[in-house]
# Entry
Amino acid sequence: MTQRISKSKRFFMMNPVIQFFKFIWLSLKILVIVAGGHGGTRNIS
# Structure
């Protein structure tokens, strides 16, 4: 029983973190695409 509770706790703790990183990764991707597509002043190589 204790293992199941810890597993569910771990899932609840990990899920928001994964979503948060997904959001950051997506926003970063969009920023790079927008900056590159619109000829940003910064040159990322």
